[in-house]
Every structure is written in structure tokens, then in C-alpha cells.
Amino acid sequence: MQFTLRSTLFTSIGILSVSFLLSGCGKKQAASGPPQGPPEVGVVTIQQQRVTLTTELAGRTSPQQIAEVRPQVGGIIQKRLFTEGSDVKAGQVLYKIDPASYQAAYASAKAAEARAVANLFSVRLKAGRYQDLVKINAVSQQDNDDAQASLKQAEADVASTRAAVQTAGINLAYTKVTAPIAGRIGRSNVTDGALVTASQPAALATIQQLGTMYVDVTQSSSDMIKLKQNLANGILKKSDSTLVKLLLEDGSAYPLTGTLKFSEVTVDQSTGSVTLRAVFPNPKQALLPGMFVRAVLVEGVNEAAILVPQRGVTRNPKGEALVMTVGAGEKVEPRPIKVVRTVGDNWLVSDGLKTGDRVILEGIQKARPGTQVKAVPFGSAPAAAPAGAAPTVKK
Q: Taking the complete model, does pTM exceed 0.85, yes or no?
């Protein structure tokens, strides 16, 4: 009886072991599935294209016209006649200086002129009589000469006094400080009752014309030399466009385009850069003096540019640019390249790629050098999984 139970137990254990082994083999065969082909990679085919190259240069805005208001005569400010921050016209009275002393000086000059004119009348009559009398020897030649000399001196006195009247009138007019140009005036640096002097170093106020703005940007002299070399070698063709676009401090684009006027002829020795000036219309006065901006200038046109997306470019341990291409036999080939600059989200390539090369952009992690791959256009839908293949489970 005991022997029968023991043999039955061993038989059951053996059956269970065989069942587990068969079950495991079935799962392993189901998981392996049919063999898969070469991995798919997304590629882009290199083509030459026409590219307009631009450069961004940092700079500052400045008004086209700016004038500092200063007094031309000294005195006490009686009244300020403008509103700070408002627009003023050329010739508009901004300040009034106490004119009392200048009015007195003008009146004195006028009186001196009248005295000189009266004296001239008497001297002219005497000179006329002596000129007639000397002809009949009624007076001596010396007396006649003295009379003619007195006439000329009297005429000079009249001219001198008239100049003094004009000077006094100008000084009296300067007691009204006017705007030299039209534009927007800033804050006043003096108040009523302040004492000012002629040609003082501190300005009373500043007027700026904001309808048109200058944008002064700087470009390194080395970049300018390189650009001229590329134009001379035919790598770039000179563009006739002088239009300039503007990017504001927050990165937004200024809606109006400007015009490049000139470039400085001297290199700044402290920075090694050259200043370029562009003019921008500013009808809504969105640009204010002193703003930091970035100007986008056209450098030239490359008629046979080779561009490769940045996502397809990596770096080797030496720091050199490298792309993975699909070469002969649909095998992956690493290709070192030389890049010049970025153009949007692409690299401009100067050496290492030619028309027709296929650069891998997607699936680079599966593209080992020398391995065979299946190249499909970048961005196309992936191929459907083979029938009967087990679905991929993401862990």
C-alpha cells in the first residue's frame, strides 16, 4: 500500500514537470516570432539651394535730431511755458528770462544812435559848405579836409551805434528761450526763479525728434573682412537690398523696415568693431532713444548652398561636426563635415556633403557605422509591423 502511494506521487510530479517545460517552450517560441529586417531610419536627401544669408547685430537707437536747450543770456527764469513730455514746435517759447536789464540796454543803444544821427546831420552840412567855399578860396584846404574827415567819423559813429542797437535787440530777444527744433521735449532741469547764465554747461531741457530713429550697430572687423573675402571669391553674391529688419528687446519683430545708410570708415581700436547706421521710420514712436535692439542685415546670396538640419549633426570627441549617411549597400557611413554658420534650424555646410547624399535624421541610435539600414524619407509614416509579430511592450 505504501509503495503504491509513493509511485503515484512520483508519477504526478513528473507529469507536472513535463507540463511546465512544454508551456515554457511554447511561450518562448511565441515571443520570438518571425525574424525582423534592417532597422528603418529617416533620411533627408541633400540638395543645393539658393539662400540669402543674414546677420544679427546688436545696437542702440538714437534720435535723428536732438537739441539741448541752453540760455544765450543770463538772468532769472520768470516762467516755464511748456508741458514736460509734450511735443513742441520750432521757435516756440519755452522759458522767459527777466528782460528788464536788457530792455534798458536796448533803450540806451537807441538813444546813442539818435545822438549820432543828429551829429551826422550837422557835420554833413558843414562839410558841404566847406567843399563849396574851398573852391573860391574862402576857406583853407586844411579846414576843408578837417570837415570831410569829421563827416566820415560821424558816419562811422552812426554805423557803430546801429550795430549796438542790433546787439541790444538780439540780447533782449534771447530773454525768450525758444525751441531750436520741433520734437518731444523732456523734463525741465530748472524751475521758475532759477538763475541761469549764458552758454552754461547744464541744459535747461532736451528736445528729440522721434518720427525717425537711427539704429547704430557694431560689426567686428574680422567678420567684415571674412564677408569681403567670400564676396571676392564668389562664395557669396552681393545683394542690392539695403533694407534692414529690427528685433526689439523682448524678441518681437518691429513691423517697419529700415534702410542701411552707411558704415563707419574707422575701426574702433578699443573694441575692434565698425559701426553701421540704419534709419527706421517711427510714426507711432514705439522706438525710444537708447533702446537695445538687434538689426537683421542681408550679407549676400549663396546660389549653391548646402544645408543640413541641426538635429542630424553630432560632434566627435575632437569636437568636429559629424553626420551619419546612408551609403553603398544601404550601410551607415559616418561623414565629417565643416559647418560655417546656422541658417534658421539648419547648418550651412562648406565641405563634406554633396548633392544626393542621404543624411540620417531619425533613428540615429540604431544607425551604427557599417550596419545595414532601411532608408525612408524623413517624416514619412513608419512601416506596418509584419503579420503575426508580437506587439512591442514598453516597460
A: no
